[in-house]
Design a protein that fits this description.
CATH topology of the largest domain: Arc Repressor Mutant, subunit A
Family: Belongs to the transposase 8 family.
Structural class: mainly alpha
Oligomer: single chain
InterPro entries: Homeodomain-like_sf, Transposase_8, WH-like_DNA-bd_sf
Keywords: Coiled coil
Distance between the termini: 69 Å
Protein name: Transposase
């Protein structure tokens, strides 16, 4: 199994720009993508995904923008951290409450 390539942001932007500039020369978006993808050495589906992501970010297509998706990921990470901290505090509270009860019974 081959490792997937990592393309730099500059290559992605250039490829998307090429598709947008030459889109009118082809009967469909897919035809333009299929023509340009080999020039940057990627599969057409990857390039199509980049083009669609750029269109969403520009407001030309429905969907969640990259910035919104990043914000959601950050908030989900924060919620996970807070839940973990809350669970630790609950356990500590129960531990100290039990210790206080044990101390009172021994006195």
């Amino acid at each position: 199994m081959t490792k997937s390539k990592q393309f730099s942001p500059e290559v992605r932007e250039r490829a998307v720009r090429m598709v947008q500039e030459h889109r009118g020369e082809y009967p469909s978006l897919w035809a333009a993508v299929e023509s340009i993808a080999p020039k940057i050495d990627c599969v057409p589906q990857t390039l199509l995904t980049w083009v669609q992501r750029q269109e969403v970010d520009a407001g030309l297509r429905e969907g969640v923008t990259t910035a919104e998706a990043q914000r959601v990921r950050e908030l989900e990470r924060e919620v996970k951290e807070l839940r973990r901290a809350n669970e630790i505090l609950k356990l500590a509270s129960a531990f100290f409450a039990q210790a206080e009860l044990d101390r009172r019974l021994k006195s």
